[in-house]
Amino acid sequence: MDGTLTVPMHDFAWLRRRLGIPSEVDILVDVASRPPEARAAAEQIIHDWELDIADRAEAQPDALRLLESLEAAGCRLGVLTRNTQEGARRTLAASGLDRFFDPEDVLGRDDAAPKPDPAGIQRLLDNWQADAGDAVMVGDWIYDTQSGRNAGTATVLVVRETAPPVCDSVDLQVDSLDAVPRP
Asked: Which of 57, 59, 73, 169 is the most exposed place for a label (fewest CB within 10 A)?
């Protein structure tokens, strides 16, 4: 979602400083490992930060073209994010992209183990009664493609203007959603 379908606004360096998390440590893993009171405080900081960003979300210029073509081809579309489901739905609404996604096909970290775990993709596939071989995971970070690979789907890494992350779990790397093959 963030960076793939919407313009990225998350300042993860700020969040890491705010929560005291080193750059090489996964934020969600660190927070989950904290004692209950500290975990709850960190989760509240993240929740508030995500919702503030969600309400200001803007669609990537190429997102609408891709989603319209996939919808026209009869594809089922889902969102799997490491944000909360509430944040994902608010992001989609603010960016005007919510019309492409059934609410039950928008999954956050509160619905399934966070990426790179394949549970969220598997849940979407189960809901759609689809096979992994019929699905593609499109994302802008290594966790996206690892999640897709772990679930058995094809993977597309959208690099845009940033240096590509080291990633061996990608079938196709593109610099724009316009370069994603259509069915």
From this structure: 73
Residue pair 91/1 in contact by the 8 Å Cβ criterion: yes
pTM of the model: 0.92
Domains in the chain: ranges and CATH = 1-183 (3.40.50.1000)
Sheet with 154-158, side-by-side order of all strands: 136-139, 154-158, 172-174
Spatial separation of the C-alpha atoms in residues 50 and 1, rounded to whole Å: 12
Q: Report cis status (omega within 30 of 0) of the bond before 116.
A: yes
Q: What is the pLDDT of residues 105-159, one digit of tens each?
A: 999 999 999 999 999 999 999 999 999 999 999 999 889 999 999 999 999 999 9
